[in-house]
Amino acid sequence: MPDDLTPTVLALLALAGFVAGWIDAVVGGGGLVQLPALLLGLPGATPAQLLATNKISSIFGTATSSVTYFRRVGADLRTALPMAAVAYLGAIGGAVIGLHIPKSAFNPIILVLLVVVGAYTLFRPDLGRESLRRFHGHRHVALAMLTGFVIGVYDGALGPGTGSFLVFALVGLLGYTFLEASVKAKIANFATNLGALTVFAPGGHVVWQVGLLMAVGNILGGYVGARTAVARGSGFVRAVFVVIVGAFIVRIGGSLLGWWS
Q1: Which end of the chain has fewer CB within 10 Å, C or N?
Q2: Which residues cross the membrane (predicted)?
Q3: Into how many domains does the chain fold?
Q4: pTM for the complete prediction?
């Protein structure tokens, strides 16, 4: 563990893990909290170490929220498991890519995607309130798998907003409600975290002590967040989705404009 980590910094990192776990469980996007916290708490860490440590924390939270959602809402595993399998493979490829390219190159692309996603959701108030399945049978599963693979590559290479992108794709492309989409998104997000760690962990990039400490907060946040989302329903998840996407836009847009580092 780095020598400059004081008990106060460790406590704040654990708190950031809890908040990130809650956000991830409800709608995805906990990296908006967790990655900046790691950047501040581990100022000497490399980009690969930050990404890897974030993944080891996040995978515990996504595992917890996945189990909680599945027990309380259920999920069609005939779609969820193939989607998660290819998301895992995509994240492995993405992590290999992410080790060799500057992360700053992705920010403009991410910002455009978030603006489009946020605007589309905001101006479609009925989106994700009712289940209106698009495509059926093998076509439905195939589109879910394509979605999982593409977003898996993105998560392995960079990651911010992965959960939100998964939820939006499942709602906008496949016609799920926000709550239904959240269940499948958590399962796929667990797979993408696992895929990235398949590359990062053997490479020695994980700061294990910090990652496992934040994982405790992530587990608690994931459990509370999943129960909150199930109790409040798709309307609540949609509202949180819009807020989180808006926060991403401000965070990334501000970085590009030089408002903060």
Answers
A1: C
A2: 80-99, 105-123, 143-176, 206-224, 236-260
A3: 1
A4: 0.81
Tracing tokens 């996040």 back to the chain, one arrives at 58
Mean pLDDT of 234-259: 81
In a domain, 29, yes or no: yes
Domain extent, residue 131, equals 7-257
**Dihedral (Cα; 99, 105, 108, 112), 10-degree rounding:** -40
If one counts every other C-beta atom within 10 angstroms of the C-beta of residue 6, the result is 10
Of 261, 252, 232, give the one whose Cα is nearest residue 26: 232
User: Is residue 1 included in any domain, yes or no?
Assistant: no
Mean pLDDT along residues 212-222: 93
A 10 A CB-CB count for 71 gives 10
| Backbone CA torsion sign across 140, 124, 108, 189 | negative
CA distance linking residue 8 with residue 68, whole number of Å: 31
- Does a structural domain hold residue 26? yes
pLDDT in tens, 131-187: 666 777 899 999 999 999 999 999 998 777 788 889 889 988 888 888 888 889 989
Residue 70 and residue 185 in contact, taking contact as beta carbons nearer than 8 Å: no
Smallest Cα–Cα separation from 162: which of 141, 146, 185, 144?
185
Position 118 in a domain: yes
